[in-house]
Specification:
The chain is of the alpha+beta class. The chain is built from 5 helices and 10 strands, in the order ββαβαββαβαββββα. The protein folds into 2 domains: 93 residues, OB fold (Dihydrolipoamide Acetyltransferase, E2P), CATH 2.40.50; 88 residues, no CATH class. β9 and β10 form a beta hairpin. It is globular and about 50 Å long. Iron/sulfur cluster binds next to α4.
Length: 221
């Protein structure tokens, strides 16, 4: 498959993590990082909007990179980036639109105005640090309105194994999480999440799950 060239300014870097749920159990696949980029990408029409019509460079798209690429380039909000990528094969399993990046380059910084956090927009930590920190559920609306540029925010594709005796029966959805300080004043948990199991049973993920996952951290950590 021929790849698509892209170029633009990074407006967000977040961990790229997939969750697998099976009733009350969950596990994570640490895939790398998601770059949200404002710029141009070959052969893909800009999404329709008045703004985009006036300036095609306004297209916003997401690209997945690996852990080693982020270690090397240390991408953060405001960096100029270019490379080549391919559309993802299965959109249910990826938080990004494009991946398999090659010829990745960091050209420099633009003059993005830095502001005091939250949201946190500096270079992301290692994926091991995210795993050690643990996450809390984050309301999807809060994520969309306040957290898309925060390095502690994460929109995970979730694969649900509904019936372990019939592993082909799976469901897919997206869930948003926060790995950030427990004291963040933008945080809102949103409704408790429910997971479908076999024979119509439903698991409700209560608040104690988040407390257990993040309770080892101080409030501002
Ligand atoms: S709620 Fe979490 S993801 Fe959102 S700004 Fe605060 S620390 Fe970042």
């Amino acid at each position: 498959m021929s790849k698509l060239a892209f170029k633009g300014i990074i407006i967000s870097v977040q961990p790229r993590i997939r969750m697998i749920r099976s009733f009350d159990e969950r596990s994570h696949n640490y895939l790398g990082y998601s770059l949200l980029i404002k710029g141009v990408i070959d052969n893909v029409e800009p999404e329709f909007s008045e703004e985009a019509e006036q300036d095609p460079s306004n297209r916003i798209f997401s690209v997945g990179i690996g852990k080693a690429a982020q270690q090397k380039h240390q991408f953060c909000v405001g960096n100029e980036v270019s490379g080549e990528c391919a559309p993802v094969a299965d959109e249910r399993l990826e938080p990004v639109e494009f991946y398999k990046v090659s010829k990745l380059k960091k050209a420099g910084n633009n003059t993005t105005h830095r502001h005091a956090p939250p949201p946190w927009e500096e270079v992301t930590p290692e994926l091991e640090e995210y795993r050690e920190r643990g996450h809390r559920r984050l309301a999807a609306r809060t994520y969309d309105s306040k957290c898309t540029t925060c390095l502690w925010g994460c929109r995970m594709p979730v694969e649900i194994i509904v019936d372990n005796w019939n592993p082909r029966k799976r469901k897919y959805r997206f869930e948003t999480f926060c790995y950030g300080p427990l004291s963040c004043n933008l945080y809102k948990a949103g409704p408790i999440r429910k997971v479908e199991g076999r024979n119509g049973m439903v698991y409700e993920e209560e608040d104690w799950v988040d407390e257990e996952s993040t309770g080892h951290r101080e409030l501002d950590e």
